[in-house]
Amino acid sequence: ASPFRQLARRILFGEQSLNLPANELTTTQFRALLRRFPRRRRYFIRGYPSAITHLAAQLCDEGTTVRSYPTVVISYAETLTPTNAATIRQAFRCEVVNYYSSWEVPQMAQTCPDNPELLHVNSERVLLRVVRPDGGLASPGESGRVVVTDLGNYVMPLINYFIGDHAIAGPPCPCGRGFPTLVSVEGRSIEIIQTPQGRQIN
User: In terms of Cα–Cα distance, which of 99, 104, 98 is closest to 152?
Assistant: First the structure.
């Protein structure tokens, strides 16, 4: 957000945004930041899962509590592994939301609030399909390329656009919201290694 927009939201809603130095952040710095806020003030952490996990692991190693815990931790831009999610939950004592977005098509999917094993696709914002190498739709539990049609871009329409990611298609979510689902976003196509036997490793 622009500095003007941040200032406006701070004046109107009391919001304050702090940019943290990612992997360089220490537990000492984190605790110092928390002391700047009233103890009962709610906050959340949003960032790369690798950076958040790095901080979370340090807190777990120390084995001590912090002044206050976030309401939620939101991860984005990288693949959130189950191991990293567990470390973050242990350190910050809150739920972890996996947020799937891109520069071309933002707000594509996020963790179901009732079933953290699945991501809900924002089907009012984007048509998202997981397709096999032959172009057919992937079945639930099957990996494939992510192909999207952006429903919100009226300037440069993106139709059946291969966004460069691979994901695992999901089954209907038991929460009953009815959105399409993903089991996980596996990573970028350029990060996939193909073995001589034809097996793909993310």
Answer: 104
Pick the closest to residue 128 from 155, 98, 101 (CA basis). Answer: 101
> Are 158 and 144 spatial neighbours (Cβ–Cβ below 8 Å)?
no
**Are the C-beta atoms of 127 and 121 separated by less than 8 Å?**
no
Question: pTM of the prediction?
Answer: 0.78
- Two structure tokens written together for 202: 């993310």
For residue range 119-171, what is the model confidence (pLDDT) as tens digits? 999 999 999 999 998 989 999 999 999 999 999 888 888 999 999 999 999 99
Strand order across the beta sheet in which 181-188 lies: 45-47, 72-75, 95-100, 109-111, 119-121, 181-188, 161-169, 143-150, 126-131
Q: Three-class SS of residue 115?
A: coil
Burial of residue 76, with CB atoms counted within 10 A of its CB: 0-12 exposed, 13-18 middle, 19 or more buried: middle
